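Table S2 (text version). Query chain:
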Amino acid sequence: MSASDIVISAIKQKGPISFRDFMEIALYDPEFGYYTSPGDKIGQYGDFYTSPFVTSSFGHMIAKQIMEMWGQLNVSEFTIVEYGAGTGILCNDILNYIKKEIQSYKHLNYFIIEKSPSMRETQAAVVPPEVKWVDHITEMKPFAGCILSNEVIDNFPVHQVYMDRQLMEVYIDHPDVFKEILQPASSSLQEYLDQLNINLPQGTRAEINLDALQWLKDISRVLQKGFVLTIDYGHAAASIYQRSQGTLVCYHKHQRNYCPYINIGTQDITTHVNFSALKHWGTINGLDYSGYTSQTYFLLGMGLTDECRQNETNHSPTNFLRTFLIEMGSKLKVLIQHKGIRSRPLLSGLRFPLAVL
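Corresponding structure-token output:
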């Protein structure tokens, strides 16, 4: 049995399935999904790198921003909820930094939301013992703090659409091989584009992430007061939907390809995040807009260059900054939203903002 077999079985039982349901199986099937099955996903022996693998300074800058948020909330107890914590490196770097810099560490709670049992085991071996895991944020009591996601939303299952004479959705069939077919898109997909004032030209293929909208609803229910810090590959809606073939890309052993129907369950499938959508539906759900910038500008605002100078005996600052800030950081964007704060907060990570979404 494999993830491919699971997909084929679903098609035989239900008929053609949406690309969104295909992606859900390929990445998150409890036994055979890419992220839920054992094996290295991140790092040299995995399929891709994330920023925490480059340097612990990344986690330190996140920790500095979180500490600043804590101070602005003026609350004694503070909770961090990290989605999809990977190998646990980022969590560990954040907590190690806060332990040195703040006296009220005992009033800090840290929760990880992780679907993969094998990743939970990996994280548990790395993070401090006080860290806790939950299956879903709605299991938590309302709290004040920060919800953190680093390169997570780009792996949410997405609907794929194609603009013909009308908006069509991509479905997957399997007569003898995997085959895409088009069916009229649901009203929810058309409404998504309408609310963002997006008119897809004929012949355009694109992704729509409805799961991200549900995510915003869920976190807004539980976050009583605080911030949402989202770091991911993506753009504003106008840029996302200028691409005639969409943004989907797959990674297998650090090699990029554009075919999700190979290596099913053993390769990453990712799409760019629509940050305009996160802002729009965040506002609808009570999450106000704090600001938007690139990871490069965020890290510079938090003082990364100063930390690099202090640690220059460990690596070459010039080469490090070129790789981390320019090559990685310019592609990643940072969105911060807030709730329960009367005026728009001033945050160091937003010192050098990009244009308003």
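Notes on Table S2: The chain has a mean pLDDT of 91. The radius of gyration is 20 Å.
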